[in-house]
Write a structure and sequence with these properties.
The chain has 199 residues and is of the alpha/beta class. It has a single domain, classed as Rossmann fold (3-Layer(aba) Sandwich), CATH 3.40.50. Helices cover 28% and strands 21% of the residues. It has 7 helices and 7 strands. The protein has a 7-stranded mixed β-sheet with strand order 3-2-1-4-5-7-6, with helices on both faces. Helix 6 links the parallel strand 4 and strand 5. Helix 2 crosses helix 3. It is globular. It starts with a helix and ends in a 20-residue tail after the last strand.
C-alpha cells in the first residue's frame, strides 16, 4: 500500500458486498482500480476483471496484492486513463470508484458529483455507459443522493437504480449506487432507492 492507498482503498467488507452484487457472465471493468481491493473481491468470486489505473505504482501494488490473495490469474491490469480507454473496452459490469479528492471530502456537507475526479460524476457515468448499462458507483457517505438517482435518467429508457448505505462496524463509510441489472438483486420492481446499512 502507498500512503494514499491506506485511506482510499474500499474496506474489504464493502468490496465483498460489491462483488456479490455483480451480474453473472462477462468481465467486470474496474475503472479506477487503485490498490486493487475491489478487483480482488470480484476475482475471488470467479469474475474476469479488467483493472485500470493511471498510476503505474498503484497498478504494481494492486498486481502484487492480487498475487497475495491468489486471484492474479483472473485480473488483467492496465496502466492507463479510463476515459481514453473506455471506447475500446467490453464488459458486463463497470465499477466506478473515482477519486473523491482525498480526506477533505469529509468537510463538505453535501458532496456533489462535480467534486469527483478526474471529471464530474455525470461525465464519468456517461463514459461507463459506453461499456455497459450495468454500473456500480462507490461514492462518499455525504454524496447528494438525489443527484446520484438522477444519473439513471441519462439512459433511455431510464435505468433501474438502487442506493445502498455501506457501514463497517456501525460507521457509515460510503454509499453505493447500483444501476441496470446490478440494482434490486434481479427483482423487477419500480422502486427509486433502497437504503441498507451493512454491519
Amino acid at each position: 500500500m502507498d500512503e494514499e492507498g491506506w485511506f482510499s482503498v474500499t474496506p474489504e467488507e464493502i468490496a465483498v458486498r460489491h462483488a456479490q452484487r455483480c451480474v453473472a457472465g462477462g468481465a467486470v471493468v474496474d475503472c479506477f482500480a487503485g490498490m486493487g481491493g475491489n478487483s480482488i473481491q470480484f476475482a475471488a468470486l470467479g469474475y474476469h476483471v479488467i483493472a485500470i489505473d493511471i498510476d503505474p505504482i498503484k497498478v504494481e501494488v494492486a498486481s502484487n496484492n492480487s498475487k497475495i490473495y491468489g486471484v492474479d490469474n483472473y485480473i488483467d491490469f492496465i496502466v492507463g486513463d479510463f476515459l481514453q480507454l473506455a471506447p475500446s473496452l467490453k464488459g458486463n459490469v463497470a465499477f466506478l470508484s473515482p477519486p473523491w479528492g482525498g480526506p477533505s471530502y469529509k468537510t463538505t456537507e453535501n458532496f456533489t458529483l462535480d467534486l469527483l475526479k478526474p471529471v464530474d460524476g455525470c461525465a464519468l457515468f456517461q463514459v461507463a455507459q459506453t461499456i455497459t448499462p450495468n454500473i456500480m458507483m462507490f461514492l462518499p457517505r455525504n454524496v447528494d443522493v438525489c443527484q446520484v438517482e438522477q444519473l439513471s435518467w441519462l439512459s433511455s429508457p431510464p435505468l433501474n437504480v438502487e442506493i445502498e448505505e455501506n457501514c463497517v462496524r456501525g460507521f457509515l463509510k460510503g454509499v453505493t449506487a447500483y444501476f441496470g441489472k446490478t440494482a434490486y438483486w434481479g427483482v423487477a420492481q419500480e422502486i427509486s432507492s433502497v437504503h441498507i446499512c451493512e454491519v
